[in-house]
Amino acid sequence: MPSVLISGANRGLGLEFAKQYASAGWRVYATCRDAGRADALKAIPGTVSVHSLDVADKASLSRLALELKSVPLDLVIANAGVSGPRGMQPELVDRDSWLETLQVNTLGPLALAGAFKPNLEKGRLRKVVAITSRLGSMALNDTGGLYVYRSSKAALNAVWRSLAIDWKPLGMICAVLHPGWVRTDMGGPNGDIDATQSVTGMRQVIDSLTPESSGRFFNWSGEDLAW
Hints:
Layout: E1 3-6, H1 12-23, E2 27-32, H2 39-42, E3 48-52, H3 58-67, E4 75-78, H4 95-115, H5 117-122, E5 127-131, H6 147-167, E6 173-178, H7 195-208, E7 217-219
Parallel strand pairs: 1-2, 1-4, 2-3, 4-5, 5-6, 6-7
Helix pairs in contact: 1-7, 4-6
């Protein structure tokens, strides 16, 4: 039975990832900040365990890594993310909230990958994926604004590109995925697609990842995106 660890799995894309992988017969380790309140996760049929994890908290990550120390993982999905303050302007920069967004969207995924590197080395597929956004693309930015969110995802893209290079000798496959504009709590009600369609597409991309595709930036539907 293949295994996957998913961060930010209590709602939206993370919850849909957990549902689909469990339905496909995977062993799912689903994480969220408060496992005690993750009723939707606990209701998923299949082999699913729910664990508390705050990706921005080093102690929380260390506790879960110790708890799952002996568990082989085939796939880690760094999905937890926040939008941060969307309307911040250069005339009034809120440093604290910007740094909080970077903690979750940029530092958190890399720390997650590092904490579960030994588990991935025990697994067969050795894939580690981060959910990013096309809003982090330099080449595709033609509307401006969203300084905080854009910068956190651009930094995540740069981090994952380096991770792919550094972990290539270990046989690890690292990629970043844009989920599309999805109708979730974060994406809002006007998105182009729903979570089921987005995750179905991203799972197909993940399934198709090979060592040659490591270090690349993919759309949910499989196309390469510009950095």
